[in-house]
Write a structure and sequence with these properties.
Elements lengths: L6 H9 L4 H13 L5 H7 L4 E4 L2 E3 L1 E2 L4 E2 L1
Antiparallel strand pairs: 1-2, 3-4
Helix pairs in contact: 1-2
């Protein structure tokens, strides 16, 4: 997983305080991950969706937000 910058996550968290903890949990799990397939990602984040072109959508805070 390549996350280019945490800055946008922090900015979003400041604008939506209820998302800050879930985003930080997502960040911590993601930066440590070494996934090689969608199946591997789903072991960590069961609700992830593959949207094509090696891109995925993660539900944040019970699908209140999507990343």
């Amino acid at each position: 997983m390549v996350v280019i910058s945490k800055t946008i996550l922090i900015e979003f968290g400041h604008a939506h305080a209820d998302a800050m903890v879930p985003l930080n949990k997502w960040w911590e799990k993601t930066k440590k991950a070494d996934w090689s397939s969608l199946h591997d990602i789903k072991k960590t984040f069961n609700s992830v969706d593959y949207v094509g072109n090696d891109r995925y959508v993660f539900n944040i805070k019970g699908n209140k937000y999507r990343l």
